[in-house]
Amino acid sequence: MRIISGKYKGRRISPPKNLPVRPTTDMSKEALFNIINNHFNFSGLKVLDLFAGTGNISYEFASRGSAPIVSVDGDFGCTRFIKQTAAAFDFDITPIKNDVFKFLEKHSSAYDFIFADPPYGMDQAQFDKIVTTVFDNGLLEEDGMMVIEHSKYTPLRHLPNFSFEKSYGGSFFSFFEFESAVTDDDDDDAEEE
């Protein structure tokens, strides 16, 4: 696993082999961050990384100057590794060992970017719940974006605030954003003309 861009571009990170993870591939990660780069300035971006695993995505944001970053995973080995790696690189990453769904239900901070990489075998209702809970609880800033990584067997286009989808190899990324609405002011201007 390596960091593909930013201050620590090219640095390799070697997580323990016994972690229960499926890291996002370098090819998929590079394509994903190219898309994100077209929407955001990474510096100071407030990020929430759900099902963080090895911290692969968190390190990528941190290397580009994003902070603060919160990384949530239910596995103690994963959060311990993220804590050790963040300290070694002096990244502003806070690992939290918690069930992601419990965390989302009780958490109240809003983020500019939320990334979720649940186990591909998780059932459809749980994937749906990630999206609905994030938006219902106000965890995404109004100009923010959420991305969920999933397999082709888990469609997410039917969910509210779905924006677009990209696929790379066997991985799919679904993007969610608040829909921009026409304001009342725009209607008033049209009537005056």
UniProtKB/TrEMBL annotation:
GO terms for molecular function: methyltransferase activity; nucleic acid binding. Keywords: Methyltransferase, Transferase. The keyword Methyltransferase applies. Pfam families: Cons_hypoth95. Residues 1-21 are annotated as: Disordered. GO terms for biological process: rRNA methylation. It comes from the Bacteria. InterPro entries: DNA_methylase_N6_adenine_CS, RNA_MeTrfase_RsmD, SAM-dependent_MTases_sf. PROSITE patterns: N6_MTASE. This is 16S rRNA (Guanine(966)-N(2))-methyltransferase RsmD. It comes from Flavobacterium magnum.
